Amino acid sequence: MTAPARSLRERARALTADELDAIAWLHVLAPGDRQLALDSLVVANVLTGERICRIGGPATYWFGVIEGLLKMSNDGSGGAAITFTGVPPGAWFGEGTLLKHEAYRYNIEALRPSVVAGLPVAAFDALLERSIAFNRFVLNQLNERLGQFIAAREIDRQSHPDVRVAHSLAALFHPVLYPGVGQVLRITQQELGYLVGLSRQRVNEALRALQGAGLIRIEYGGVRVLDLAQLRRYQPA
DNA sequence: ACATTAAATTCGA
DNA sequence: TCGAATTTAATGT
Fold first, then answer.
1. What angle do CA A85, A170, A67 make, to 5 degrees?
2. Where on strand C do bases come within 7 A of a protein Cβ?
């Protein structure tokens, strides 16, 4: 029933033209550097619940989400403070770990069937060595992510459910970190509740409030953002 | 927890 | 391969 876990390398396939097009950093590379990346990039389909990487595992790839939704859990050993982050399409992660050639510091698993790409660590290193544009991309991404983490701490201390949902949603719509999301985020109310730490019913209520305020539109299996700036600043009336 | 609606899948031509 | 019928998933109350 559940397929045996196989590594990304083993189940790798070629990327389609559309998938390549959706990888933002490929477009900033010079032709020679892009070719280097293309020669080593791999992609695989993963099933719901499949583990992409685990805490302590050797850093083998810089991972990117082409399609679907992943969850990053940052739990210390022993069930203490656990934080979940949704990882939507367009996201690339793991560069911190790769830079230091350390082990992964979080677990990543698929929340639904997804398509995940991987750039092997050797190619990642090579691009850092020879491409200024690639360095700039990674640096910018690290900077944006730092802002996300600071914001995430604020979200966690917000007790008002509508505010938590609004700010968590706004984070997932981050255009630099998650360029694959666009105007419509594919996420169910169930999944959102799981990430934010609320019941599905309460998420539904919060989404309706946000829709009433004209900030989003609820769609079947997803949410369309109408006013991202306002969503970020949302406070209850 | 239940009713409703949307989407995905199956099946028969 | 088309579309109606059925099943599954998501939403709203």
1. 60
2. 9-13
The Å distance, CA of A110 to C1' of B7, is 21
Q: CA-CA distance, A33 to A130, in Å (whole number)? A: 8
What gap in Å lies between CA A102 and CA A150, rounded to an integer?
23
Q: Do A51 and A7 meet the contact criterion of CB atoms below 8 Å apart?
A: no
In a domain, A154, yes or no: no
Q: Is position A214 within any domain?
A: yes
Q: How far is the CA of A201 from the C1' of C9 (A)?
A: 16
pLDDT digits 0-9 by tens, A51-71: 999 999 999 999 999 999 999
Distance of C1' in C7 from CA in A204, Å: 25
Per-residue pLDDT of A127-176, as tens digits, reads: 999 999 999 999 999 999 999 999 999 999 989 999 999 999 999 999 99
User: Is the torsion defined by CA of A74, A167, A63, A146 positive or negative?
Assistant: negative
Chain A 172-211, CB < 7 Å to strand B: 201
Total number of domains constituting chain A: 2
Could you tell me the sign of the dihedral formed by the alpha carbons of A69, A206, A153, A137, in that order? positive
Q: Which nucleotide is nearest to A219 (CA to C1')?
A: C11
CB A37 within 8 A of CB A119: yes
Spatial separation of the C-alpha atoms in residues A89 and A22, rounded to whole Å: 9
Looking at the fold, whether A220 and A124 belong to one and the same domain comes out as no
Distance CA A211, CA A208 (A): 5
